[in-house]
């Protein structure tokens, strides 16, 4: 029977042709409904499953391509950092793990930074990639975020961040935690220049990223169903030994409790970000910090003369029960009633002094 296996079957296979390999991403399963969706159709729908509206993860390249006009952007150069400062090794040496992640993602690290145009307006954007060591925050990722923010300061443009991370990278130890204050200082640079900083929180955004620059934006937007937290719900539930509410730490739960500003569907994300950038940069050249008023003898000067201190606008705030905080007392003003002082007449320089000068 060997001639059948060795001769007949190979000839039949040759007539029928070689077996075709099916790509791994040809079909995708909806994690909520179990529906099978063609991978090409899912990509055309921005990786949103049509049946359940579940938002699947996107790569950093896909994020920026969907954000910028015509999918065109220029990568922002990021300074290099030491590859393996702690000589860390677990089941695999850290440099080898980075090499595998770079070959898989075609990225230098977990954050990709690009500059381009969003609805005809120049912006700088950065996106985390969960495929690169879980989107974790290390020295290279922190340097990329800082480089993006400083580039936005240089170009005087808004900065947009797509956050998706498992937290600080354990292979870099304390050096990864140092990126939290470093990125916070870069956020302050944006504030000083009055440039919008918009954060899009995607699934999942956790750990040190949540505890630093991901929650320091001017506007916080989340995708539907995104997990946003520092410690995950399973860790919290095991710690406090109590049942957590349904949807705890999900985007909709955080919106209801005031932690984020809005939940936006992925199909409307680009239009929402473009509208916010226009609103927050409108007439930005006319926005000036008011100069500090001149004073004479400790009082504000009017027409070169010192004026008596005036009663300003007083608004009483309600005081909670048992609180030690006291509301400022208002003169002849009920709560939430504003009182404005009468204009003060400048002192006549020709008037005679009422008392003799000393000496």
Short description:
The protein has 359 residues and is an alpha/beta fold. The protein is built from eleven helices and twelve strands.
Q: Could you walk me through the main structural features you see in this protein, from its secondary elements to its overall organization?
A:
The chain is α/β, with parallel strands linked by helices and 359 residues long. It folds into two domains: 25-56, no CATH class; 57-281, Alpha-Beta Complex (2-enoyl-CoA Hydratase, Chain A, domain 1), CATH 3.90.226.10. Helix content is 30%, strand content 15%. The chain has helices at residues 2-16, 39-44, 60-67, 94-105, 139-155, 174-177, 179-192, 207-210, 233-240, 251-256, 269-281, and strands at residues 27-29, 36-38, 73-75, 111-118, 121-128, 159-165, 197-205, 219-222, 262-263, 295-296, 299-302, 305-306. The strands form three sheets. It has a seven-stranded mixed beta sheet with strand order 3-4-5-6-7-8-9, with helices on both faces. A hairpin with a 6-residue loop joins strand 1 and strand 2. It is globular and about 80 Å long. Mean pLDDT is 83; it is low at 286-291, 300-304, 306-344 and 352-359.
Name the features.
359 residues; alpha/beta; 2-enoyl-CoA Hydratase, Chain A, domain 1; 2 domains; 12 strands; globular
Ordered list of secondary-structure elements with their pairings:
Elements: H1 2-16, E1 27-29, E2 36-38, H2 39-44, H3 60-67, E3 73-75, H4 94-105, E4 111-118, E5 121-128, H5 139-155, E6 159-165, H6 174-177, H7 179-192, E7 197-205, H8 207-210, E8 219-222, H9 233-240, H10 251-256, E9 262-263, H11 269-281, E10 295-296, E11 299-302, E12 305-306
Parallel strand pairs: 5-6, 6-7, 7-8, 8-9
Antiparallel strand pairs: 1-2, 3-4, 4-5, 10-11, 11-12
Helix pairs in contact: 5-7
């Amino acid at each position: 029977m060997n001639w059948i296996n060795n001769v007949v079957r190979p000839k039949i296979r040759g007539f029928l042709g070689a077996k075709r390999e099916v790509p791994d991403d040809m079909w995708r399963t909806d994690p909520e409904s179990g529906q099978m969706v063609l991978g090409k159709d899912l990509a055309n729908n921005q990786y949103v499953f049509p049946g359940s509206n579940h938002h699947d993860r996107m790569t950093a390249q896909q994020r920026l391509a969907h954000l910028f006009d015509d999918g065109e952007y220029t990568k922002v150069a990021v300074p290099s950092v030491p590859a393996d400062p702690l000589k860390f090794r677990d089941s695999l040496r850290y440099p080898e793990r980075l090499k595998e992640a770079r070959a898989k993602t075609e990225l230098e690290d977990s954050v990709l930074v690009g500059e381009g145009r969003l609805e005809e307006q120049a912006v700088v954007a950065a996106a985390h990639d969960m495929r690169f060591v879980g989107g974790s925050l290390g020295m290279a990722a922190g340097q990329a975020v800082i480089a993006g923010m400083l580039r936005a300061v240089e170009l005087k443009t808004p900065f947009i961040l797509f956050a998706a991370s498992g937290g600080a990278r354990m292979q870099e130890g304390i050096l990864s935690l140092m990126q939290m204050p470093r990125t916070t200082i870069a956020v302050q640079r944006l504030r000083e220049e009055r440039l919008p900083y918009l954060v899009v929180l995607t699934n999942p955004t956790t750990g040190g990223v949540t505890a630093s620059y991901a929650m320091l934006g001017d506007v916080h937007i989340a995708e539907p169903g995104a997990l946003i937290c520092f410690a995950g719900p399973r860790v919290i539930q095991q710690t406090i030994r109590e049942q957590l509410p349904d949807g705890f730490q999900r985007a909709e739960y955080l919106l209801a409790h005031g932690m984020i500003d809005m939940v936006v569907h992925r199909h409307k994300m680009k239009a929402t970000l473009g509208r916010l950038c226009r609103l927050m940069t409108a007439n930005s050249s006319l926005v000036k910090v008011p100069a500090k008023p001149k004073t004479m003898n400790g009082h504000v000067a009017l027409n070169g003369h010192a004026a008596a201190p005036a009663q300003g606008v007083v608004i009483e705030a309600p005081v909670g029960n048992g609180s030690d905080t006291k509301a400022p007392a208002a003169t002849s003003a009920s709560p939430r009633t504003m009182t404005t002082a009468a204009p003060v007449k400048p002192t006549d320089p020709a008037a005679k002094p009422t008392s003799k000068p000393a000496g």
